[in-house]
Amino acid sequence: KRKKKMKLLGEQKEIAWGSQIRSYVFQPYTMVKDHRTLHETGDIQAVMDGELDTFIEKELLFFAAVEKSDD
Protein backbone atom coordinates (compact mmCIF):
# COMPACT_ATOMS: atom_id res chain seq x y z
CA LYS A 1 0.00 0.00 0.00
CA ARG A 2 2.86 2.37 0.83
CA LYS A 3 4.48 1.64 -2.54
CA LYS A 4 1.24 2.50 -4.32
CA LYS A 5 0.93 5.76 -2.39
CA MET A 6 4.50 6.75 -3.19
CA LYS A 7 3.92 6.03 -6.86
CA LEU A 8 0.83 8.29 -6.86
CA LEU A 9 2.72 11.09 -5.16
CA GLY A 10 5.52 10.84 -7.67
CA GLU A 11 9.04 12.04 -7.18
CA GLN A 12 9.31 14.55 -4.35
CA LYS A 13 11.15 17.62 -5.56
CA GLU A 14 12.91 20.33 -3.64
CA ILE A 15 10.66 23.26 -2.87
CA ALA A 16 12.06 26.04 -5.02
CA TRP A 17 11.00 29.00 -7.12
CA GLY A 18 9.00 27.78 -10.10
CA SER A 19 7.93 24.49 -8.52
CA GLN A 20 4.48 25.67 -7.49
CA ILE A 21 1.33 23.59 -7.75
CA ARG A 22 -0.90 26.54 -8.64
CA SER A 23 -0.31 29.96 -10.10
CA TYR A 24 -2.43 33.00 -9.37
CA VAL A 25 -2.63 35.95 -11.78
CA PHE A 26 -4.33 39.11 -10.50
CA GLN A 27 -3.32 41.67 -13.15
CA PRO A 28 -3.93 42.44 -16.07
CA TYR A 29 -6.43 39.55 -16.01
CA THR A 30 -7.48 37.07 -13.34
CA MET A 31 -6.72 33.37 -13.47
CA VAL A 32 -5.86 30.50 -11.15
CA LYS A 33 -4.23 27.49 -12.82
CA ASP A 34 -3.40 24.13 -11.27
CA HIS A 35 -0.23 22.90 -12.99
CA ARG A 36 -0.80 19.22 -12.15
CA THR A 37 -4.35 18.85 -13.49
CA LEU A 38 -4.27 21.84 -15.89
CA HIS A 39 -7.59 23.01 -14.42
CA GLU A 40 -8.00 26.78 -14.48
CA THR A 41 -10.59 29.38 -13.59
CA GLY A 42 -10.97 33.11 -14.03
CA ASP A 43 -12.96 33.46 -10.79
CA ILE A 44 -9.94 34.22 -8.64
CA GLN A 45 -12.01 35.87 -5.91
CA ALA A 46 -13.95 32.65 -5.30
CA VAL A 47 -10.68 30.70 -5.01
CA MET A 48 -9.25 33.27 -2.62
CA ASP A 49 -12.45 32.95 -0.57
CA GLY A 50 -11.77 29.23 -0.20
CA GLU A 51 -13.98 27.76 -2.90
CA LEU A 52 -11.61 24.99 -3.98
CA ASP A 53 -14.13 22.24 -4.76
CA THR A 54 -13.47 22.19 -8.52
CA PHE A 55 -9.71 21.96 -7.94
CA ILE A 56 -10.20 19.12 -5.45
CA GLU A 57 -12.53 17.27 -7.84
CA LYS A 58 -10.06 17.58 -10.72
CA GLU A 59 -7.21 16.31 -8.55
CA LEU A 60 -9.24 13.33 -7.33
CA LEU A 61 -10.13 12.47 -10.94
CA PHE A 62 -6.47 12.84 -11.92
CA PHE A 63 -5.26 10.48 -9.17
CA ALA A 64 -8.07 7.99 -9.94
CA ALA A 65 -7.02 7.94 -13.61
CA VAL A 66 -3.37 7.41 -12.66
CA GLU A 67 -4.29 4.59 -10.30
CA LYS A 68 -6.57 2.96 -12.89
CA SER A 69 -3.86 3.07 -15.55
CA ASP A 70 -1.56 1.14 -13.19
CA ASP A 71 -4.06 -1.73 -12.82
Written account of the structure:
By secondary structure, the chain is of the alpha+beta class. It has one domain (21-70). Helix content is 44%, strand content 14%. The protein has three helices and three strands. The chain has helices at residues 2-9, 44-48, 53-70; strands at 22-25, 31-34, 40-41. Strands 1-2-3 form a three-stranded antiparallel sheet, with no helix packed on it. Strand 1 and strand 2 (31-34) form a beta hairpin. The longest helix has 18 residues, at 53-70. The two termini are 14 Å apart. The mean pLDDT is 85.
In short:
This protein has helices at 2-9, 44-48, 53-70; strands at residues 22-25, 31-34, 40-41. The protein is an alpha+beta fold and 71 residues long. Strands 1-2-3 form a three-stranded antiparallel β-sheet, with no helix packed on it.
